[in-house]
Amino acid sequence: MSARAVVSKNRPVAMQRQVLQPDGKLVDGAQPMEEEFLLEALRWMMKSRLYDHRVIGLQRQGQFGVYSPGMGQEASIVGSAMAVDPARDWMVPQYRELMASVHHGLPLEVISSQYLGKIGPARIPEGVKVLPTQVAIAAQLPQATGLAWGLKLRGEDSVVIAYIGDGGSSEGDFHEGLNLAGVTKAPIVFFLSNNQWAISTSRRVQTATRSFALRAAGYGFDGVEVDGNDVMAVYAATRAAVDKARKGGGPSLVEATTYRMSFHNTTDNPSRYQDPKDYEEAKTRDPIERVQKYLASIGLWDGKKDEAWTEELREENDRALKLAAEAQPPNPDDVFANVYQDPPLRIVRQRSELAGGQR
Amino acid sequence: MSARAVVSKNRPVAMQRQVLQPDGKLVDGAQPMEEEFLLEALRWMMKSRLYDHRVIGLQRQGQFGVYSPGMGQEASIVGSAMAVDPARDWMVPQYRELMASVHHGLPLEVISSQYLGKIGPARIPEGVKVLPTQVAIAAQLPQATGLAWGLKLRGEDSVVIAYIGDGGSSEGDFHEGLNLAGVTKAPIVFFLSNNQWAISTSRRVQTATRSFALRAAGYGFDGVEVDGNDVMAVYAATRAAVDKARKGGGPSLVEATTYRMSFHNTTDNPSRYQDPKDYEEAKTRDPIERVQKYLASIGLWDGKKDEAWTEELREENDRALKLAAEAQPPNPDDVFANVYQDPPLRIVRQRSELAGGQR
Amino acid sequence: MPQRNIVEAINSALTDEMQADQRVMVLGLDVGKLGGVFRTTSGLIEKFGSERVVDTPLAEASIVGASLGLALAGMVPVAEIQFLGFTAQAFHQIGPQLGKYRQRSRGRYHCQVTIRAPFGGGIRSPEFHSDAVEAQFVQAPGIKIVMPSNPYDAKGLLIEAIRDPDPVLFCEPDRLYRSGKAEVPDGAYTVPFGKASLVREGDNVTLVAWSAAVELCLRAADALAADGISAAVLDLRTLVPLDVETLCTQVAKTGRCVVVHEAPLSAGFGAEVSATLMEEIFYDLDAPVMRVGAFDVPFPAASLEDHYLPSLDRVVKAVKRTMES
Amino acid sequence: MPQRNIVEAINSALTDEMQADQRVMVLGLDVGKLGGVFRTTSGLIEKFGSERVVDTPLAEASIVGASLGLALAGMVPVAEIQFLGFTAQAFHQIGPQLGKYRQRSRGRYHCQVTIRAPFGGGIRSPEFHSDAVEAQFVQAPGIKIVMPSNPYDAKGLLIEAIRDPDPVLFCEPDRLYRSGKAEVPDGAYTVPFGKASLVREGDNVTLVAWSAAVELCLRAADALAADGISAAVLDLRTLVPLDVETLCTQVAKTGRCVVVHEAPLSAGFGAEVSATLMEEIFYDLDAPVMRVGAFDVPFPAASLEDHYLPSLDRVVKAVKRTMES
Ligand SMILES: Cc1ncc(C[n+]2csc(CCOP(=O)(O)OP(=O)(O)O)c2C)c(N)n1
Ligand SMILES: Cc1ncc(C[n+]2csc(CCOP(=O)(O)OP(=O)(O)O)c2C)c(N)n1
Ligand SMILES: [Mg+2]
Ligand SMILES: [Mg+2]
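The joint structure predicted for all components is written out below.
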């Protein structure tokens, strides 16, 4: 295990930057994840990738909305999600880490139905502690801080995990959200998926800093960098941050260094801006393969198992997609749904106008 | 001289955190400012404080607008201004460091006339490289970055100095302005006057970081902390940053630790929120007294000189205030001045309406 | 009954609601020991402690964004933006986030958040402090917009805002903060949204206004009375929801109308009032509805504000022109 | 003459101006190698290099703020905000800073800055990408607001914007980006601000619109013609400056008017159009001016946008109601 404190000279945290190497071997002396747990992680990672492939296919056939796949980032998505407790912790997504929300209890058919333009069926069920996906980059961060601060004020035993990208790190909301978290000592973990791209904008021109994690010191808390393609390391780093927050230790920033192994979303064409070599290089660090190699090396994985799981997970995903497709489509009146608890008269009249009544 | 690199483990800069101690003695081994230069600095610091006293008096008599004095911060104001070259460098003020702009070539009568509600006479003269004071906290920072970036693109030999407060450091614009400066390697020095207060809000609840300078690392450039009540140290730190920027070394952040030895502005009442002990403690670190003590210790200052300078500077300030008072007051039509180069017809009509013509 | 000015009325509303509901908290710049730059939150930190009355960092977007999150956690935040002009710094967190959160979560979440902010000219404030930008938020559906003009309404509307399950932007006329006291009961009461108030009866023309412009219209009505013109004054109180019914009934009665506001004329809310009257009661109008607003330029230096803002003279002139057409 | 769609027209304007004036530069998200998410800046980085075509960090306020500073340094920045809805993130740098800088510097400085941004519904975009928030900026004096509806105007107005010494918000109708080609000359030409264009003559009613709504009105005019109603279509082209004269003359001719826009109805710019007509030509109106806008709720999920946006049916109905009154 290579321990490395990246930032915060004042309050260093010993961090597992990497546990499992790209070749599927453990870092010297590193403590691996428990086998059952690792198998569970692998299952979720495979599910995520299979889902991506499936819905990209559907999107190409016009049967799914604009979609941002998580391919290449599965270790970050799953490792971080496994570090929080769906029963008491809150998840604040951006939009790419879809399977993290599913792990946190949001049914796959529910979030899928959102991409099919559903309204009612896309509602996050009561009791699932997940906020809606956020399209306005970084706007979720001050909100997540407020949520964590509020949970603390209400005396709840909850931690918030909030996702943000390397691109999102440049927004003013990133700064304001993190600074306020430091001041209020809010129980929150900011999980920064540094996938090297913001649409076509490379991480190199996003900022001149050598490390995003470094920024945490400027807000008075800890920042750590972790190999975002190593689910064991991601889990360990995030879990340490979650535990610390739960104990009243305040916020942390976890930077997961990973790579977006696909387009930004289904409308994007990376060949305009991406060097194919970067992609090839990233493939050698694939987060799923390395776990499979490791498990194979201890006799827990082989081609048969791979086939069986793939089959099972495909079916699981397809069941969810089928439910989503069958769910009630919106009706025109849904334009007016869920804006106010008591709609102003003017809207009531517009509603009846749309329904064909007189203005 | 106590050298201390505050931040940026990657690119440390040796910094003179303090040169002149509060007791007027030099830090062991520190290199003092040249005597002539120090006398000039003292003159500007005294001018600043005398001006503050004078206009606060005027304001109390209803003869001056709302005013934010620089008292206690004179070393930061003057030391930073002396580090830039009015002939080629640009100054981007907030609102408190008024005398820095005057040092940079903005006539005192011009900036004074602004507080008397003048329009034409308050215009920054052609050739003076100073931007207007900024009331919207931190909004000047992305602008200053753009200015520095533009000067670089135009191939000019100019550096920008931009002022910001401890309060202003929390705004999203701070983050966005500094990050963009890092990316564009703009020739700019961000001068953060950490005077411990943002109106009534203490620096302690403004952020949890122990150092604002620390934030620079998160943008890929250097940050330094300096005793903001020590004009020698402020000058040295700022000058080093300016020289670096001019040589193509990109931006720096200088945090000057000082104390606001007065109210936020003339409408404020610090007794509601400030512990008088803090003020008393700050007084022992007065930036002007320490220079006078030092100069006295080398035979260059005494009570007589103090009286003579005070007299001279008062007259100088009063002359400017007189000019400002005598300058043309605005006329109603100035409401429409300087909005568009070619005002839309609608405004032309409104203008004639105000002038008493028909709509 | 106790007499209070608007500052005291607001302070009283906050005190009553914080006393009645543990979840209510106040956050913003300098709302703690200072009691706010206008003292509207004076004494609250002493009564309710620094967990419920919080001086935040100087960052408006995070004040609003955090309020949204606090609301999701079950708190009832009353955020103060130091001046309405600085809602610009938080703009993306207001309309697109607070105002949309119920919709974007398909009704799973809602935001019981009140944003208070003083604004308006006439007190020689620095730049941005006077900007009357209320109409910008009307184009951000999901946000209710409340514009009290007097102490009684200020308290009742603020309590209504705090209790409203949806987000409310509560704009306070700083020029009137201490301009006069009125009867304001102790204890909680509410003034409903979407009910305009006829603050003065009149037969010949209706002056429509909100916030500090109501006071101006009352002065104009006095001046007009001297010239034999009987002007009614209608205080809209809330722009969203708009009381279309009272507006139309009242203007139809007088047949003539002048709308007055402090915001720049073009695309100010006066345009909405005029367009609404056009659509609803065109045939009851005896003369075109006229608008008096600030001019279509940015708020000028304080020394010029009297020429920029709608003046008594301009209102009176507009009414007379209306009477002549 | 060469045929271009709006994307090509904009690209052509940028190319011409960058070629003619070294100071002109383009900055924003993904404007470089990608050529912008809609490809409006395609090829520019190859032609003019990465110093003049700059992919910025993901931070809208700094794109606008830096553009202001770049202009002060003598550059002529053309900034792209990826979608108009994200001007909210930069709101405080647009109206209160760009729009005021000439005034607050007493005329010492001015900001020759163009902000381009696509917007509008109809292409099933994600949240915030369709928001039609143009009216919010009308309440921020100092900013000119340009809303082209066709390729020819897009190029000419954009060149006019780039050369304008004052800041311009240039809103591009993404639904029409590639919807059709029109004659667009090679080489620079300008279309002046403040001149509305009568894109279709008609006797019975005037449809007033801008941006993509012009296309809708043209379709409505066709439909109405089939019913024997002759509708003129007036394209305002710029909201600030507003061509009050053409607007009034044209509507006075037909005596009837319907304003159509994609923004929510309340306090949309349609209100300004209606209020202006009320004030200026009340006695020439044969019927009340009607507005058709989106409803007063946030832009809904893409699957619902057709019900939310003004539709052919709603425009036709409004015209018929107007004809009957
Ligand atoms: C405020 C805002 N500006 C611009 C956009 C357009 N946009 C959507 S995704 C994206 C890139 C985000 O990059 P990053 O934060 O790194 O997340 P990733 O897509 O890599 O997961 C941009 C610019 C947006 N959605 N919101
Ligand atoms: C965007 C914005 N928000 C709030 C204010 C009100 N305000 C004026 S000065 C000030 C405090 C500024 O503190 P700091 O940045 O430390 O500067 P200092 O006054 O100490 O020099 C505040 C909150 C403002 N002018 N602009
Ligand atoms: Mg990314
Ligand atoms: Mg300060």
